[in-house]
Amino acid sequence: MFVLLLVILVSLGAITLGAEFLVRGSSRLALRAGVSSLFVGLTVVGFGTSSPELGASLTATLRQSSDVALGNVVGSNIFNICLILGLTALFKPIRVQIAAVRRDLIVAVGAALVPWLALPFAGYIPRPVGFVLVALLAAYVAAAYRSARKAGADDVQLIEQELAPSLRQVRGAVARDIAFVVLGLGLLVLGSRGFVDSAITIARQFGWSELLIGLTLVSAGTSLPELFTSLVAMKRGNTDIAVGNVIGSNIFNSFGIVGVCAAVSPQVVNASLTMRDTPVLLLATLALVPIMRSGGQISRIEGGLLLGAYVAYVIVLFSMGG
């Protein structure tokens, strides 16, 4: 057991470091290719924090464990909203401009419904649906790019400064950035493999279901980049960034990760995921609307409620055995 826990910790470190290398290298390469730093900040950097989830879910799919793959996605999205936003708001109320994120929040609500796509297909998400989900993500990115080009100069400057301050530093050889990308992908693959395999082994030893381990241990571990990003933003006094980080990550998780995994292999959706966990995710996402509209911020009290809701959810999960 000690060895498995050590493997999990080392794997998490490799996943986190791999995500950092991947984002840094790909961002600089994109800038050299003439892509705007604003677009890179909203896509490469924003989605880059979700690359650990992609690695873990794809690895689980190749291991024929849809419960871990999909449980990781739904669990990560619930973790992002309830724990990350809740914890960040407890430290400092999160300023929100509801008009700025209205479209993205609507897309996030739609993303929360993705597991229910299995209902018309006898409990699984087939390959064609996976390709459709990836196409929807591409359409969302294209729409975000068009909106970004219309952003005012002040908005562009703010996003460049706060979301990706390193994107403007494009000095250095192309070979170094390619090495960052290759190294980042390698660490993500190796870390995800060790993390998922060890988590599944532990789950079996304790008698936990693979769905439970995907919803809790795997999802929490792979959501560390989002947590670190939000806490750093809070420390810098720009806690509103946490909202965009969470919403963008959730959209990528549902459309991109589920789509890619289903395209690789049809995903069998556990009945508990559709009947219990997807409604929780949907309620958590919908709750952001009145929370954000109340005073233009997520208050400490609201953050505490979100955090308490996550703790209660995890307790219910373990009491039900997954």
List the main descriptive attributes of the protein structure presented here.
globular; mainly alpha; two-stranded antiparallel sheet; 13 helices; 322 residues; A middle domain of Talin 1; two-stranded antiparallel ribbon
Protein model, in words:
52% of the residues are buried. The chain is built from 13 helices and four strands. It has a single domain (2-320), classed as A middle domain of Talin 1 (Up-down Bundle). The longest helix has 33 residues, at 174-206. The model is unreliable at 152-156 and 162-168 (pLDDT under 50). With 322 residues, it is mostly helical. It is globular. The protein has a two-stranded antiparallel sheet.
Helix proportion of residues, in percent? Answer: over 70%
Cα shape: globular
CATH topology: A middle domain of Talin 1
- Mean pLDDT over the full residue set: 81
Largest sheet: 2 strands, antiparallel
CATH class: Mainly Alpha
Q: Superfamily at the CATH H level?
A: NCX, central ion-binding region
Describe this structure in a few short sentences.
By secondary structure, this protein is mainly alpha-helical. It is 80% helix and 2% strand. Helix 4 packs antiparallel against helix 11.
Write the layout of secondary structure elements.
Blueprint lengths: L1 H31 L4 H12 L2 H12 L3 H26 L2 E2 L2 H15 L11 E2 L1 H24 L2 H10 L11 H33 L3 H13 L1 H12 L5 H24 L2 E2 L2 H23 L3 E2 L1 H21 L2
Antiparallel strand pairs: 1-4, 2-3
